[in-house]
Amino acid sequence: MSAPNSRLAVVFVVIVAVIVGGAAVAPYVLGSGGDAGSDPAELENQQFQPDTVLPEETAEEGEISMDSDASGKTVLVDVGHANGVSETDLEPLLSTLAENGHQVRFYRGQRRSLNESLRSADALLVVSPRERFTSDELAGVESFTDAGGRVLVMGDPPSVQASGGLLFGLGGLQESGSQTASLGSTYGIAYGSGYLYNMETNDNNYKSVFVEPAANTDLTTGVDRVVMREAAPIRTASATRALVGTDGTHLSTTRDAGTYAVLVRSGNVTAIGDTEFVTRENAHDADNEVLIGNLADFLVDGEKRPGAPADPDAESPERPPGGGGGTGAPGPAPPPTPTPPA
Amino acid sequence: MSNSPDGSGLTRVQSYALVVAAAVLLSAVLAPVAYDRATAPDGTVAVIAIEGTISSSSVTAVQEDLREARENESIDAVVLDVDSPGGGAAASEQLYLSVQRTAAEMPVVASVKSSGASGAYYAMLPASDIYVTPASIVGSVGVRGAAPGPSLPGEIKSGPDKASATADQRRAQIETLQRAFVGSVMRHRGDDLELSRTEVAHGKVYTGAKAVDNGMADEIGSTPEAIEQAASAAGLEDYDVVRKDPPRLGGLLLLQTEDGGTVVVEESPVGYEAVDAPTYLMVYGDVQTETEVIGNVSA
What is the ipTM of this complex? Predict the structure, then answer.
């Protein structure tokens, strides 16, 4: 009885072994069966490899320094026209001035008029004013520059700003631009609409354009190229175009390529189409620090006659005709001009 | 067969009858299979929908469908039925890689319903043909990233770059993603494109006819044409179509607040819920990058 039982057991084991073994071997024998479960495709994506996609970053080095040997000049910074800039943003330029023994004061539009503040200043810095200059102020700035005072205007492209809070979709978006048209027009300088971009040569963003010297001026001494984060073109017929966009720079509003100026100088007035290059984050990119030093030199290098502008609003008999304070005679000060409404 | 010698009792006739009955029975089982085989289509075209905003979770479902298409031997071609403005950058790249893997094994054709922009365009790049209608839009090759918000008051961070980044760093990151995106467009469509790499990088959207004209798409046509093209590329004359719709995502999320109230938060379509993480997007149109509190319900 035991022999048939053991034979049956052997037969059982052999059958199981053959079937299970056959199932295990079958895919290899049949060939294609094994491929179905795996993804054999080898994908080569060279366009994702680090050496293809990682951008170069512009070196950030160098110190801001001034060459001017002038000392004790007073630079008035306009923050009284709802300027779209904070004192922190301007810190690299203002610190440089302070470190080199110059005085920085702010015009806030509260107690004194701009013209009154200008009388004791040697230079004026106006950054992105969002409120218009009154005609009195414009006349005051003109006589200030006529008297040798330096004016540096920094503007930027119109930006879209949120108002009223955006939660629940309330509030709105308003486009606000620098109110520099009338100020610039006095000196034959106008800010163009739109921003500059360069799709080929840029500092890792199409809006971060490089600008390079187009004329040999004090402002561009030592400058090879400067990074502007959001630059507006400056149009001028008579002023010197000191810095222009590199090849391939386009204007956003027309999409036209061209040689767009972003830094121009007309006598005692310099205008720049960007405000961000001066912030500490960007101040050491490329040759930005050299340009900031040159701008600081520009501000303090003027020889302004003290007392200008005489009050242009006063219909006082001693006001010199035609010159708008060109003689610089301070005279007895009439009551100060009322400040523009806030 | 003959009469059983051991006297089992079956006559010759009975034996024949038994054999005939067994044969008929077996044939009845096998005949439908044989009939099916004779009349079966040559293969199957899977239509896989890529709809709505592309997010990590929606991509997982589509990836699963694509994987099934690759593994299921009865599926011979895939049509991507695209109607999406794009979405998260990383999710779009994931989808691109899955489509690319599928296209390496079988014909993949894309059909754009109304919008195949940005990340969705990225995802269908490996397709051999892109079908559009005159009013559908494709393109918008580009990346956008929201600026990180300010630190929470009193928050302590372990390092200066933790949960924040400088503008320089973010510009470099966006540039990196952009190069990968534009590089992929040029790789897959460079031969057809009338546009230069720079023009592609402008991120413009194109309507169907313009896209066919400049090489961003291949043909004017709807999804049935795309299916036909996919089938013919797979050599199928007679085919089945199976449609795979991943579940739509999005919805409302309830969050408990400290004071016991419940805030109803609309689930962020592309980012992380409840965390305002700086997310890089490949998306066309207006987006709400942050979770938006849309109501306050007291518990």
Answer: 0.75
